[in-house]
């Protein structure tokens, strides 16, 4: 069971500031299953702990690298099932990594073409 005296807790406002997410987005992420059930104080206010913040940062990395909300939900669901899903989660991340590497390659090619065009325009002076 959670012991509120073991970890520093953060309000939803503090968590929003730390993660650059709105309180609305944090509540939405909880509602759709991306966040585990967040602990509540005696008044019913959400209390985020360091583990929650760390998980949110990981979700943001997944989102920022193009993982769909649906795949993020699948990953979060697998995570909630414990260590028996480690292989499935690892495989999801490997697939995501491959897609990221393809995206990086495309971006690199596009950057080179843009640099070529800048060089061409510079030569016209």
TrEMBL record:
CDD domains: HTH_YyaN. InterPro entries: DNA-bd_dom_put_sf, MerR-type_HTH_dom, MerR_fam, Tscrpt_reg_MerR_DNA-bd. Pfam families: MerR (PF00376), MerR-DNA-bind (PF09278). It comes from the Bacteria. Signal peptide: none annotated. Residues 9-78 form the HTH merR-type domain. Keywords: DNA-binding, Transcription, Transcription regulation. The keyword Transcription applies. Gene3D superfamilies: 1.10.1660.10. SUPFAM superfamilies: Putative DNA-binding domain (SSF46955). PANTHER family: HTH-TYPE TRANSCRIPTIONAL REGULATOR ADHR (PTHR30204:SF98), REDOX-CYCLING DRUG-SENSING TRANSCRIPTIONAL ACTIVATOR SOXR (PTHR30204). This is MerR family transcriptional regulator. It comes from Bacillus changyiensis.
């Amino acid at each position: 069971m959670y012991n509120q005296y073991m970890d520093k807790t953060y309000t939803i406002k503090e968590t929003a500031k730390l993660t650059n997410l709105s309180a609305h987005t944090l509540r939405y992420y909880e509602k759709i299953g991306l966040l585990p059930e967040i602990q509540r104080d005696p008044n019913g206010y959400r209390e985020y702990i360091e583990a929650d913040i760390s998980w949110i940062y990981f979700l943001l990395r997944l989102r920022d690298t193009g993982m769909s909300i649906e795949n993020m939900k699948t990953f979060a669901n697998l995570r909630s099932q414990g260590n028996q899903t480690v292989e499935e989660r690892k495989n999801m991340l490997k697939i995501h990594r491959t897609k990221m590497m393809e995206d990086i390659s495309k971006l690199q090619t596009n950057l080179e073409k843009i640099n070529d065009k800048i060089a061409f325009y510079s030569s016209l002076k």
